[in-house]
Amino acid sequence: MTTKQRSDRAADNAPGPRPRGVTGPVAGLWRPVWAWLRLDLRRRWLSLLALALLVALATGTVMTAAAGARRGASALDRMLDVTLPVTLMPVPGGPGGPGFDWEAARRLPGVAAVGTFLASGTFSIEGHPGVEIGGVPMDTEINRTVERPVVLAGRLADPARVDEAVVSSRFLEHSGLSVGDTVTAILPTPAETDAMLANNGPASVSFSGPRQRLTIVGVVRSFWWFHDDPAYLGGIQTTYGFTEAYRENLVGTGDQAFVVGLVRLRDGAAGIPAFQAALDRLAKHPVDAFDIVKEAADYRATTTFEAGALAAFALAAYLAAVVLVGQAVVRFVIGATADLGVLRTLGLTTRQATVAAAAGPVLATTAGALAGAVAAAAVSPLFPIGSAADVEPRPGFDVDLAVLAAVVGVTVLLVAVAATTTAFAASVRGIRPARPRGSGFARLAYRAGLPAPVLTGLRFALEPGRAGAAVRPALVGAVVGVLGVLGSLTFQSGVADAAANPARFGQSFEVGSVVGWGGEDFAPADDIRRLVAADRDVLAVNDTLVDVATVERRPVTLFSLDPGTGRPLSVPVLSGRLPATPGEIVLAPGVASRAGARVGDIVTVTGRSLADGRPMRVTGLAFVPQDSHTDYNQGGWVSAAGYRALFPDGFKYHEFHVELRPGASAPAVRDRLNEAAGAGDVFYVLTDELPIDAMNRFLGIAALPRLLGAFLGVLAVGTVGHALFVGVRRRRHEVAVLRALGTTRWQSRAIVLTQAAVIVLVGLAVGVPVGVLLGRALWRAIATSTPLIYVPPLATAALALVVPAVIVTVGVLASVPARRAARLRVPDVLRAE
């Protein structure tokens, strides 16, 4: 018989089933692998199940976050692609306002469509106070050729029907109604409408005109009309047929009705300058037009920020999963390789041992990744989050096959490479009973005379032992868990503070008043300043003059600092100091970045009186008041003398900014000042002029750090638990020897509990300080890039609870392996070894 025949016969007689249709070298490889896998699944099915659950949790979380980020980043653009979005909203005030020729505007060059709506008339919905009445259509173009909404349920209203309406989804949430239900519109009488127009606003919230029942025929959404922001109670929009039927009730008996247009240009933003010039010529005066394209760009910045945060969450989760799950895989493979050592002496080849040791973890990873993909698809209706959810054109179930396939494929590939590499290295090296290296800490404990169970527990926690039991995964898992939870919650503390605190954006004043416009005061400014300064809750008041200058040939809104004889306004300075002389200026970071200026630089500032500009030194960077004409990050401060030098002829706006004492009620101060001034609306609370867009960015991601902390905590619990379970099984021979030498069952339990206590101490000692520092470092990076004023965040509750929570969690995890260690059958274990 030849050598080949003898090897073939030996292969045929090898144990284990032979796969059908498989012959030759492949059959020789798979027969022992398949036999070992069946045995391994029976012996260690619980460990493999735990590994699969860890993988499912990790990959499911990552796939959910990554798919949600992609969906959120594209939500607005997908909405604009299908809604024929508006480009500009001209508001032709003064001459050309009421009675403006919108038909002529439709014929201007570059115009694709113009839809008009009534901005001055209104009505109410019975039983639903606070619902927004969408612009009353003044033609049939709106919802058809311009700003055509996405229909989420039902259909669009028939423009000719009087009794049909569409609503936003938020309206149905608050009202409890559904498509097909009816509501009742209560209209004003023509006289009531005339009174509203004369008073430039609603005279009352109750009307005594006709009542019209409206059937809700559809739920719609678009960027301009109904995108359901968080403070929105929902909206309803009627038809042009409704307008025609009740025209006099809506527009009144005169010609004061105010009609506003929605203009869609063929060239989009590129066509705005030419259209604006043509519109001004048509109206015979400059027409104020709201740039809806810019509003969309600002909204896109918010959704992009939210998507970036969600993508960062996915990346952080995946990196943590690679570290923790990867160590569990390596630990499992090393244990399997050690068990395969006996079969190696019986002729098992290195290749067979490698595949056999890696097969279980790869199979468990594949099953877990597929389960995670199913879970990610199941929770997809919860995404996108934040502002993107309000403009998602197709809410509901969505499967991002690209993300699911990429995460599953990469995860299985990484585990396969790690498992086979580890198995091959261990098979080639072999499991040799080399003398384990003791830890210095354990030796110190021995010299301190600690009890034997405690010393053994220290060794189990810090030394691999003769069986090659891995101790690092448990320690790393504890550190990552504590670090991740504290770091995430520390970061979340900064997010929550920024989402609710306007002072982080430089808005340190709570009450305001506008007393002049266009160079003329319409209220006695000196009397108002004295009145404000005398209030018991006022800390500081700034007499603010506002106008537009150019800084390095770019328009910038400047504010004057003028406290009079009182305390100056608390303006948080990011760097440098506030201006003190006429030749000094403070810029907002956005302006400084655009102009390429830094603290100490000289910039050219041009006001009305200086045709050639005036050199001014940048003494600091600070935010400015957020209002309707500028952003908190786009402006500058000058001294009162510096303002007069730039604008000797007056001002564009004359305002007062009032800073209150800590704890004072802004509405109470406003009401007190208005009563003292003898007017109803001279003073107002600055709630409508906060940096809402910037604050909403953080409001939209407020839950993500908590979710990341919870994910890392759960993943760490699974990793530590898996390490403790496997560690006891790998150390069973050492425990059995100790039991044979007289160690009691309770001492065996104490060994495992001591091991768990060491893991807790290491996790807390490293994880707490590193977690706090990491959370603060990440928040500082976000604060710098947003920008906002950085205040070191501190998760007080998390710091107070982390120690007892970690102790209890690890104690519970250690209880089961401790009981197993106490119940070992010593003769069976020693006989098997």
Automatic annotation (TrEMBL):
Q: Where is the ABC3 transporter permease C-terminal domain?
A: 708-820
Pfam families assigned to the protein according to its UniProt record, in alphabetical order: FtsX (PF02687)
Coiled-coil segments on the chain, per record: none
Protein's UniProt keywords contain Cell membrane:
yes
- Composition-biased stretches (Basic and acidic residues): 1-11
Residue spans crossing the bilayer: 45-69, 310-334, 355-383, 403-428, 469-491, 707-729, 750-774, 794-816
**Subcellular location(s) per record:** Cell membrane
Keyword Zinc-finger in the entry? The reply is: no
Report the membrane topology from the UniProt record. Answer: Multi-pass membrane protein
Q: Where is this region: Disordered?
A: 1-23
Query: Known InterPro entries for this protein?
Result: ABC3_permease_C, Macrolide_Exporter_MacB
**Keyword line:** Cell membrane, Membrane, Transmembrane, Transmembrane helix
A Gene Ontology cellular component where this protein is annotated is:
plasma membrane
Q: Provide a Gene Ontology MF annotation, just one.
A: transmembrane transporter activity
PANTHER family in the record, alphabetically? ABC TRANSPORTER PERMEASE YTRF (PTHR30572:SF4), MEMBRANE COMPONENT OF TRANSPORTER-RELATED (PTHR30572)
Query: What family does this belong to?
Result: Belongs to the ABC-4 integral membrane protein family.
State the name under which the record lists this protein.
ABC transporter permease
